[in-house]
Write a structure and sequence with these properties.
The chain is of the alpha+beta class. The chain has eleven helices and 23 strands. The strands form five sheets. Strands 11-10-9-12-13-14-15-21-22-23 form a ten-stranded mixed β-sheet. α1 packs antiparallel against α2 and α10 packs across α11.
Length: 404
């Protein structure tokens, strides 16, 4: 088989067709046009290496799987042409560089998203022939290839903050025969040179919709992005109106992307003074996607973490950039109370408990009960009753207020 006129030696077309059929059978692809697109794009070109992951008590362990090793060729191809998110970068470095000599640990920073999620997102955009699209978060380039296969190179612009990712993606896109506009830069700023766009799609998470995306989208266009903080979020589909305004809803299918990698504001050290107490609220409730979405609205800029105390006790903590923090330990012998410590200018766990009470009072809504509206200088998420009336509202933190 050939990619861009060159024989790759890999029989990839049957695998790509089988992946497309599997996505259609699962209901992830409902438009035959997108089934054809997936069948024609060689994913292996964009993911020549990925890392298999394993959760351990030391953190996430990564082990390289590469098509360059004949002994791994079958496992690599099976992974590439499966509906799986494949990790390609850890701590800002490629997995083939980091783990060539053996497994290791770290925090993942880029991936090739599961095809089911990407095709679902692309279909939600409602693309038409001739639409101009801005993709923010190039990553491996595979999604840009799907867009280019569907629309043509002249209609696709993709941007990523990582120049190394951009260069590799540009090379791999060319190898597969695709030549969209590929740029390095801060995706929050869009690409005004190539605006306006009919559609904007982001493959990373932010706690708001960058105003530049709204300004660069034609009235009647759409933006699809992961509106999320460091506790919870969901996928937003917003329609753009005149006067740089937008409104939308959160899609029923939950999904989350890696957080934005743009530079973050300084974070104050943990406050040294603290108070103690007890809580009956199980921090595992933050694993509930619906509550996590709700809690994020009450706790913008707050990060959740897990740790082990020096005495061996497991704990769950939350912290903010202003030095506030709270840590909840394992339950006592009764199983009903947990020891609690809180420091800093805000009592963060009190805020979590308050959010939980309000969530229960509102009958535990999930993200589909919320709407989004944006105007100059303000973005608001609103909880709606079954009849569409407003129940409560929260203003999203705009640039400079988020913390990662």
């Amino acid at each position: 088989m050939r990619v861009n006129g060159r024989d790759t030696g890999i029989q990839w077309r049957p695998r790509a067709a089988a992946l497309a059929q599997a996505l259609a059978d699962a209901g992830d692809i409902t438009d035959p046009v997108w089934q054809g697109v997936v069948s024609h794009v060689p994913r292996h070109v964009f993911v020549p290496h990925f890392a298999h992951t394993q959760a351990t008590n030391k953190g996430t362990r990564y082990e390289l799987v590469t098509g360059a090793d004949p002994a791994q060729r079958a496992a690599w191809l099976d992974g590439v042409y499966s509906d799986t998110t494949l990790l390609t970068q850890v701590e800002g470095r490629s997995v083939e560089e980091l783990f060539a000599s053996g497994p290791g640990y770290g925090r993942h920073s880029s991936s090739s998203t599961a095809p089911s999620l990407m095709t679902s997102a692309l279909q939600a955009l409602g693309l038409h022939d001739g639409d101009d699209v801005l993709e923010v978060g190039t990553g491996t380039g595979y999604n840009a290839a799907l867009l280019t296969e569907r629309l043509g190179a002249e209609h696709v612009t993709t941007v990523d903050i990582d120049p190394n990712l951009v260069e590799r993606a540009r090379q791999r896109l060319a190898e597969a025969g695709y030549h969209p506009t590929v740029l390095a830069g801060d995706g929050r700023l869009g690409s005004p040179k190539h605006a306006p766009y009919d559609r904007v799609i982001s493959t990373f998470g932010l706690p708001y919709v960058p105003p530049a995306w709204i300004a660069q989208t034609r009235p009647g266009g759409r933006i699809l992005t992961n509106v999320t903080g460091l506790i919870g979020g969901a996928m937003l589909l917003a329609d753009v109106h005149d006067d740089e305004r937008a409104s939308g809803r959160f899609l029923p299918r939950w999904a989350g992307f890696m957080p934005s990698r743009h530079p973050q504001p300084a974070v104050a050290p943990y406050a040294s003074e603290y108070v103690t107490g007890h809580t009956a609220l199980d921090p595992a409730l933050l694993d509930d996607l619906a509550f996590a979405f709700f809690a994020q609205l009450h706790l913008p800029g707050v990060r959740r973490y897990a740790a082990t105390h020096e005495d061996g006790r497991e704990l769950v903590g939350v912290r903010a950039a202003d030095s506030s923090w709270a840590e909840v330990y394992e339950p006592d012998s009764t199983g009903r109370r947990r020891y609690l410590e809180q420091g800093g200018p805000r009592r963060l766990w009190d805020a979590v408990e308050s959010a939980h009470r309000v969530w229960v009072e509102h009958h535990k809504p999930d993200w589909t009960r919320f709407t989004f509206a944006a105007g100059p200088g303000q973005q608001v998420v609103t909880l709606r009753a079954d009849d569409g009336s407003e129940v409560d509202r929260w203003e999203l933190p705009l640039e400079g207020e988020d913390f990662a």
